[in-house]
Amino acid sequence: MVNSIERVHLTVDSITYALGPLESLDDLRSQVLRAARAAGGFLNVTVDGGQRLSFFVTAATSIVIAVDTVRLHANTADGDRPTYHPEVVGDYDDGDVPFDVI
């Protein structure tokens, strides 16, 4: 079985934003369509990293929604098998492990 996730990218007036993992294609389409039919309205999204953005959408706003399917490797998708990182050095002066080491 191949594990994958969908990554949604939103382009508004030629600026592209990578959206958070909980943003759905159907919800974005609905928000854009409602705003355009109402002659203006807000499109609310969360970008990757947690920042929330609101775009005022009109019939003249250029919006592209792109979805990429990203395959997950079996050794990282389930979290059971650790990944070997030869560049990580385990010798620390104060006994603490840096937080950026995963």
In short:
This protein has two helices and five strands, in the order ββαβββα. By secondary structure, the protein is an alpha+beta fold. It starts with a strand and ends in a 25-residue tail after the last helix.
Description:
The chain is an alpha+beta fold and 102 residues long. The chain has one domain (3-74). Helices cover 17% and strands 35% of the residues. The protein has 2 helices and 5 strands, in the order ββαβββα. It has helices at residues 25-37, 74-77, and strands at residues 3-12, 15-18, 41-46, 52-57, 63-72. Strands 2-1-5 form a 3-stranded antiparallel β-sheet. The relative contact order is 0.22.
Provide the fold topology.
Elements: E1 3-12, E2 15-18, H1 25-37, E3 41-46, E4 52-57, E5 63-72, H2 74-77
Antiparallel strand pairs: 1-2, 1-5, 3-4
Total count of strands: 5
Number of domains: 1
**How many individual helices?**
2
Quickly give the structural class. alpha+beta
Beta-strand content estimate = 35-45%
Q: Give the N-to-C terminal Cα separation.
A: 26 Å
What is the typical, i.e. mean, pLDDT? 81
Q: Uncertain regions: pLDDT < 50 for 5+ in a row?
A: none
Proportion of helical residues: 10-25%
Q: What are the secondary-structure elements, in order, as H or E?
A: EEHEEEH
* Main β sheet profile: 3 strands, antiparallel
Strand order of the largest sheet: 2-1-5
Rg measurement, Å: 20 Å
Shape: elongated
